[in-house]
């Protein structure tokens, strides 16, 4: 990280931990609950958001001086919508089954609060290079949480990881299933994703007491 | 120098150290404490929390005992039924020796007591861990929860599933909110809801209610025991149990909720000792009857015919809803939980009525499982503070109005 200054490093590292968009700012919860039942979907979603945010932040940052402030939200929406359609088309071309699985949620990246939030809060006021780092950082912070949730939900809910039967075969009763283990169907339901998010927040705040709000 | 003295010495020795709560809990669990509870929703009571909890446990013991015998009875009865000799094993009358015998007790003790041990062991362990980490005293709240849990699960639920659910229920249902007295949801029902959504095959169907029915499924000695609600949900016109079976409890179901007469005894005991709120119990039953009447009316008016999948449960006579399923158990032991119920008297009427009303509604319309008491109570747990808020605000408004009239 020597190429980046201290300040720029923070742009990437902060959203990964103490300024995480999901666990600290509590944004983007909707997609975190909806598509994390499988690890693969979580990873694809994380990559899609990484692309949209990285490129989108740069584009908005480049245009920041020519966007009239009254219509800036519309301009931001057009930029993010364009990028999301690119992602959607790429997925349909190269990973059709996965794109069906993710269905509307790729399209709904447009409404992901994290993206509009970073456009508004950062890209409109900073140069393209720093905006790029900020976009990448926040997308990574979002993706890391998504992958953690996806990991636990798929492992405990389906007994698989990326489709591999890591715990054995539930029908032929091999591996862990031979001693009576069963998959936890609750893990596949969205409420459990919310509880997993809550548990991550709990762990994070008990490790770093500075994050606990006064009230 | 008795045990109490030794415990007291240990307690003093560890005072201020990390393990202090553990010794303190052991001491107060075995002997009456010198102090009463400092925090939580119980501050209005003069009794200390432990006595309140113990009273509920005493009220639950008859149900547990009956559940132990019923586990064996259902097992042997199902075998006899498969062999065609059911008639001679049938228990008639509450004191039937076909029911109260050592064979039934042996099976029941073998299956029910492990549930109790796992429930208490795991639950209290979690409580101890949290008490040590947070540095407060072990809370008594789990004493009742630990007794309720074995009574509201199917007999053959694998013990590790119960353990997982208990950890979930105690941590997510209670500790994250700040422990006993601060929880929004009833922990015992949170545990049951977790089991229901996580392992549905072990929580519903016609195999889970009778001991060994799951293992024997598909074999030559297969047995089963569908609950009455399950039979009605499949539009059965006749059921193999008569009203006295339902009332006395000689029917398949969760471990401790089948015997209506013992639940009524427990309810009277709770009302008499002023631990359970008669308003909640009464209004829950009224709510259930009203919903039952509405469904009966729908059937009588001919709005649905017997091809509808809801016809079986809708046409159950309204009063019969009280003696099948677990509405009575829920009303007496679950809805009255003082922490999660409404606190105001008017609020209790509304809270109870809606529990009964929604229970029967879910019971009839639930596509997965013909029972809804636990879901209804959890739902109303969430709304209880809101109900209280509006009751209090209504009262404030009324008094303000009176004030205005006077000053005008």
UniProtKB/TrEMBL annotation, chain A:
Enzyme class: translocase
Key words, A-Z: Cell inner membrane, Cell membrane, Ion transport, Membrane, NAD, Sodium, Sodium transport, Translocase, Transmembrane, Transmembrane helix, Transport, Ubiquinone
GO annotation terms (biological process): sodium ion transport
Highest taxon in the source lineage: Bacteria
Organism for this UniProt entry: Dokdonia sinensis
Function: NQR complex catalyzes the reduction of ubiquinone-1 to ubiquinol by two successive reactions, coupled with the transport of Na(+) ions from the cytoplasm to the periplasm. NqrA to NqrE are probably involved in the second step, the conversion of ubisemiquinone to ubiquinol.
Name of this protein: Na(+)-translocating NADH-quinone reductase subunit D
TM annotation in the entry: 43-62, 74-96, 102-119, 131-152, 185-203
Similarity comment: family membership: Belongs to the NqrDE/RnfAE family.
Name of the encoding gene: nqrD
Gene Ontology CC: endomembrane system; plasma membrane
Automatic annotation (TrEMBL), chain B:
One GO cellular component, as annotated: plasma membrane
Transmembrane intervals: 53-73, 105-130, 142-172, 250-273, 280-298, 318-336, 348-366, 372-392
One Pfam entry name: NQR2_RnfD_RnfE
Keyword Translocase: yes
Subcellular location: Cell membrane
Signal peptide bounds: none
Principal location class: membrane
Catalytic activity, as annotated: a ubiquinone + n Na(+)(in) + NADH + H(+) = a ubiquinol + n Na(+)(out) + NAD(+)
Modified residues (FMN phosphoryl threonine): 227
Cofactor: FMN
GO annotation (BP), single: sodium ion transport
Gene Ontology molecular function terms on file: FMN binding; oxidoreductase activity, acting on NAD(P)H, quinone or similar compound as acceptor
Function: NQR complex catalyzes the reduction of ubiquinone-1 to ubiquinol by two successive reactions, coupled with the transport of Na(+) ions from the cytoplasm to the periplasm. NqrA to NqrE are probably involved in the second step, the conversion of ubisemiquinone to ubiquinol.
Family: Belongs to the NqrB/RnfD family.
Subunit structure: Composed of six subunits; NqrA, NqrB, NqrC, NqrD, NqrE and NqrF.
HAMAP family reported for this sequence: NqrB
Protein's UniProt name: Na(+)-translocating NADH-quinone reductase subunit B
Source organism (scientific name): Dokdonia sinensis
């Amino acid at each position: 990280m020597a190429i980046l200054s201290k300040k720029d490093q923070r742009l990437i590292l902060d959203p990964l931990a103490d300024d995480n968009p999901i666990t600290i700012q509590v944004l983007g919860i909707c997609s975190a609950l909806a598509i994390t039942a499988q690890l693969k979907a979580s990873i694809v979603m994380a990559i899609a958001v990484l692309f949209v945010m990285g490129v989108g932040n740069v584009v908005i940052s480049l245009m920041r001086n020519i966007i009239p402030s009254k219509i800036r939200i519309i301009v931001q929406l057009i930029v993010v919508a364009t990028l999301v359609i690119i992602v959607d088309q790429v997925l349909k071309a190269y990973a059709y089954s996965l794109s069906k699985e993710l269905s509307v949620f790729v399209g709904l990246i447009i409404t992901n609060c994290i993206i509009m939030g970073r456009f508004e809060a950062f890209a409109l006021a900073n140069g393209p290079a720093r905006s790029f780092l900020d976009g990448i950082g926040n997308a990574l912070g979002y993706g890391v949480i998504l992958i953690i949730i996806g990991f636990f939900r798929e492992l405990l809910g389906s007994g698989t990881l990326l489709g591999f039967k890591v715990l054995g075969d539930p029908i032929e009763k091999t591996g862990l299933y031979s001693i009576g283990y069963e998959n936890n169907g609750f893990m596949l339901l969205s409420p459990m994703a919310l509880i997993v998010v809550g548990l991550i927040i709990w762990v994070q705040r008990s490790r770093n007491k500075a994050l606990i709000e006064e009230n | 120098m008795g045990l109490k003295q030794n415990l007291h010495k240990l307690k003093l020795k560890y005072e201020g150290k990390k393990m202090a709560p553990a010794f303190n809990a052991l001491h107060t669990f075995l002997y009456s404490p010198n102090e009463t509870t400092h925090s939580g929703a119980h501050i209005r009571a003069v009794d200390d929390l432990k006595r309140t909890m113990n009273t509920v446990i005493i009220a639950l013991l008859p149900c547990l005992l009956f559940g132990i015998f019923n586990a064996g009875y259902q097992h042997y009865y199902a075998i006899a039924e498969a062999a065609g000799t059911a008639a001679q094993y049938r228990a008639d009358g509450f004191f039937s020796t076909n029911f109260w015998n050592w064979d039934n007790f042996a099976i029941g003790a073998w299956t029910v007591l492990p549930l109790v041990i796992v429930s208490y062991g795991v639950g209290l362990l979690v409580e101890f861990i949290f008490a040590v980490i947070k540095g407060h005293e072990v809370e008594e709240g789990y004493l009742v929860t630990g007794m309720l849990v074995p009574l509201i699960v199917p007999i053959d639920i694998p013990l590790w599933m119960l353990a997982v659910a208990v950890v979930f229920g105690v941590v997510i249902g209670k500790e994250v909110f700040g422990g006993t007295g601060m929880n929004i949801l009833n922990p015992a029902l949170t545990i049951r809801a977790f089991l229901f959504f996580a392992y549905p095959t072990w929580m519903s169907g016609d195999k889970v209610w009778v001991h060994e029915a799951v293992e024997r499924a598909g074999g030559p000695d297969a047995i089963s025991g569908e609950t009455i609600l399950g039979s009605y949900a499949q539009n059965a016109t006749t059921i193999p149990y008569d009203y006295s079976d339902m009332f006395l409890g000689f029917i398949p179901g969760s471990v401790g909720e089948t015997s209506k007469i013992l639940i009524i005894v427990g309810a009277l005991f709770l009302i008499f000792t002023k631990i359970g709120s008669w308003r909640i119990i009464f209004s829950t039953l009224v709510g259930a009857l009203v919903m039952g009447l509405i469904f009966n009316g729908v059937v009588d008016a001919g709005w649905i015919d017997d091809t509808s999948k809801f016809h079986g449960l809708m046409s159950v006579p309204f009063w019969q809803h009280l003696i099948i399923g677990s509405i009575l158990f829920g009303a007496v032991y679950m809805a009255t939980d003082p922490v999660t119920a409404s606190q105001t008297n008017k609020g209790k009427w509304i809270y109870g009525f809606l529990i009964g009303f929604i229970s029967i509604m879910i019971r009839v319309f639930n596509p997965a499982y013909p029972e809804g008491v636990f879901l209804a109570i959890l739902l109303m747990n969430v709304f209880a503070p809101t109900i209280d808020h509006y009751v209090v605000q209504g009262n404030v408004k009324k008094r303000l109005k009176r004030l205005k009239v006077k000053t005008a």
